[in-house]
Amino acid sequence: MALAIALPSHAAPVQDQHWALMAARMFPAVASLQAGRQPERLAAVLDSRKKRIDACQQASKCLFLAATWTDEEMDAVANAVAAVPASPGKRSPIADDGVKAQVARELRGLNAVLQIYGFGNEARYPMIDGPFEKPGSEAFKALVADAIWLADAGKNDPGISLDPSISLAIALIDANERPDAVLFEPLDKGLNAAPYARARSIDWKRYRYTAIIVPGVGPENPAIAMSARGKLHLKLAASRFADGTAAFIIVSGAAVHPKESRFVEAVEMRKVLIERFHVPADRIVIEPYARHTTTNLRNVTRQLVAMGAPIEQPTLIVANVSQSRYIESPEFAARNPAELGYQPGTVGPRISPYELEFRPSLRSLRVDPWDPLDP
Asked: DSSP secondary structure string, 85-153?
């Protein structure tokens, strides 16, 4: 006779490590708050939101609207984050423009996830971002429904239990199989461990440039790992590195072109530099998260700071002629503040048709998670 096993009506909550890491990367200031330890005003706001969300009974349109954060609710979270003491030895998630601006960026980013991956609104760059299934299709509706169930199952996860919208946003990203934002963490103990260690003994004054920056330029075919222009970038960078002009090469780019690609540009570029040009692995830093030229430069600056490189020393951007011209154009200069809120650095003089000097700015240390896949 089969033995019947009685299961508890409410299983104990468990922490999904992947979701916790996603929350910390996408919403670092908000994630610094712990559920159940809130100031009275925020507790009231969270309780009101929970009732509003629960009342939807998982109906998708109602649910995404209810989970959307208002300006007043963002202010309550900002006030609570401002009251949290900084952890000793841990970098604050607050940007240089203050708590309110930081929290607003994070929660507007969360709202954008609900709009794009839940409602199916068009992403800023639909050719590379957004859900895999066509919005409005039966497959898209089914994927959204599955994400809602997934979010409900994880709503009591102790790592993200502050508000149901967090599990909902992360479930939508997870259901679309987009782990990009945390795929290589911790970078400093993985592919970047050797160059970071080498950087500690570098005499930076020996080099004209701290690093050669190689931005990705992906193919449009998901079966191709690297475009011809990407290979051109690497030939040029390897040649420049061989003449001793820079201490490191930093390759920057995520799995971007096309949307279905599983090839991470930075990883593929690193392979080519090592295997075809014999560049030492401890002289190659990868930055595998940037999805746009704006974030290529922003994220590379973050890598330079993490390495201990002198920010006042210039870097050298190596790119094909059209991309190089675009980087020094007024259009690109205007795009940075529109998308990031600041300039990630200063584009300097042109050295050749393929090369531009670039002086990074510490403003790039701001956390600006507008794009949930490019934190």
From this structure: PPPTTS-----TT-HHHHHHHHHHHHHHHIIIIII-PPPSSTTTSS-SSPTTSHHHHHHHHHHHHHHHH
* Cβ partners under 8 Å of residue 55, min gap 6: 62, 66
**Beta strands 209-215 and 284-287: pairing type?**
unpaired
Q: What's the distance, Cα to Cα, between the start and end of the chain in Å?
A: 55
- Cβ atoms of residues 360 and 343 within 8 Å: no
Q: Is residue 52 classed exposed, middle or buried when 0-12, 13-18 and 19+ CB atoms within 10 A define those classes?
A: middle
- How are beta strands 209-215 and 246-252 bridged, if at all? parallel
Residues 254-265 pLDDT 10s: 887 777 778 899
**The model's pTM:** 0.82
Supply the pLDDT for residue 217: 87
Return the higher-pLDDT residue of 258 and 106: 106
The closest alpha carbon to 339, from 304, 305, 300, 291, belongs to 291
Joined tokens for residue 223: 């079966």
Which has the closest alpha carbon to 162: 9, 26, 23, 41? 23
Strand order across the beta sheet in which 246-252 lies: 284-287, 246-252, 209-215, 315-318, 355-360, 345-352
CB 313 within 8 A of CB 209: yes
Is residue 151 within 8 Å of residue 164, measured between CB atoms? yes
C-alpha–C-alpha distance, residues 113 and 284, integer Å: 33
Q: Using pLDDT thresholds of 50, 70 and 90, give the confidence band for residue 7.
A: very low
Count Cβ atoms below 10 Å from residue 229 Cβ, excluding itself: 16
Spatial distance between the Cα atoms of 39 and 120, rounded to a whole number of angstroms: 35
Burial 275-288 (b: 16+ CB within 10 A, else e): eeeebeeebbbbbb
